[in-house]
Amino acid sequence: MIVLFLTSFFLALVGCVLLIRYARRHARHYGAAMPQRFHIGHVPRVGGVAIFVATGLGWLVAALQTVLGNPLNSAVQPAQVGAWLLLSLPALLGGGYEDLTQRVAVRYRLVLTLLTAALACTLLGLTVPRLGLVWIDGWWAAYPWLGVILAVLAITGLPHAFNIIDGYNGLAASVALVVGLALIHVALQNGDRSLALWLACMCGATLGFLVWNYPLGLIFAGDGGAYFWGVVIAVASIALVQRNPDVSPWFPVLLLIYPVWETVFSIYRKAARGVSPGVADALHIHQLICRRIVRTVFDDDETHKMLMRNNRTTPYLWGFIVLTTVPAVLFWRYSAVLIAFSLLFVVSYVYAYLSIVRFKAQRWVGR
Fold first, then answer.
1. Per-residue pLDDT tens digits for 287-302
2. pLDDT averaged over the chain?
3. Quick one: what percent of the chain has pLDDT higher than 90?
4. Which pLDDT band holds residue 2 (cuts at 50, 70, 90)?
5. Could you read off the pLDDT of 238-268 as tens digits, one per residue?
């Protein structure tokens, strides 16, 4: 597994260098007036290509080890690699084309992630078999199509959730890396080595990308990278729960509550203002933290000043990752505890958001 992790890491590391060197021209299409923009200059937004290629090649190496009879591998079959790569393509291509042209409407990208979800459930037989609630699980098992619908919704939505939090250097990548490592830990606890191998390749590629993305901001994952993270993590989370009865379905919920709740809350506040959820704005919590909490860097170079403020924003959000990942990993068996921590996060998020909006958080958080 370490070999696969390092293989994907070095492939992504080298791939990102090539993209940084040769893919700057496309970044000119990304307008300076866009609300999500918080950098100066033309930075390649196609890091997702390096992440996808490095992860895919890692999967192929795992399949090759199986073919050659490596006893340390866990039967990653070439057909499975083909299925994972195929189901990832619609979302990845939609996001990648948006990164290159800025011309793909949100509704079309949503359709493509829906197609990815349908392919995942068809090719891999994915479903959510239970909800971790004794009083409803018997009824839920009687209608298996409900589990398929929930799986489709999860795989469709999570890529967009990762895209929403992909606003500052290292933020979405660090979330994907930590979540992936947590899933690997629980998979290994349950003896699911093959699932851990899939995630190890993604984590290695993500770390290779992160070297260039944080703190230097030399390359961005773009929509393609965010969608790929969302697809792989959603598919792996559902497969983990489906294949291991001891794992509570609320484990991945708590693990991913930050991007998921950011998306739900964003839809709510836009609907409350009569704005379409597909309209981009600059009111996500990471953007508010950057503008209202991160201290201004006194520097004559405006580019360096903006880069420093960008980099100082991400560590504030790492607190969210710690607050969700640690209890999720500790209590991955116990639905009641996981639900309680999920509710605690929601309350904490809303309190923090309102405090920042009302200028009540700056004195103690900004120190």
1. 777 766 675 544 545 5
2. 85
3. 54
4. confident
5. 999 999 999 999 999 999 999 999 999 888 8
Alpha-carbon gap, residue 273 to 164, rounded angstroms: 19
CA-CA-CA-CA torsion sign (109, 115, 118, 124): negative
3-state secondary structure of 217: coil
Closest CA to 160 of 205, 94, 214: 94
DSSP per position, 237-294: HHHHHHH-TTS-THHHHHHTHHHHHHHHHHHHHHHHTT--TTS--S-SHHHHHHHHTS
Among candidate residues 60, 255, 274, the one with its CA nearest the CA of residue 162:
255
Give 260's contacts (C-beta < 8 A, 6+ positions apart). Answer: 157, 158, 161, 253
Q: Please give the radius of gyration of the chain, using alpha carbons only, rounded to the nearest integer.
A: 20
Q: What separation, in Å, do the N-terminal and C-terminal C-alpha atoms of the chain show?
A: 41
Cα 79 to Cα 99: distance, rounded to the nearest angstrom: 30
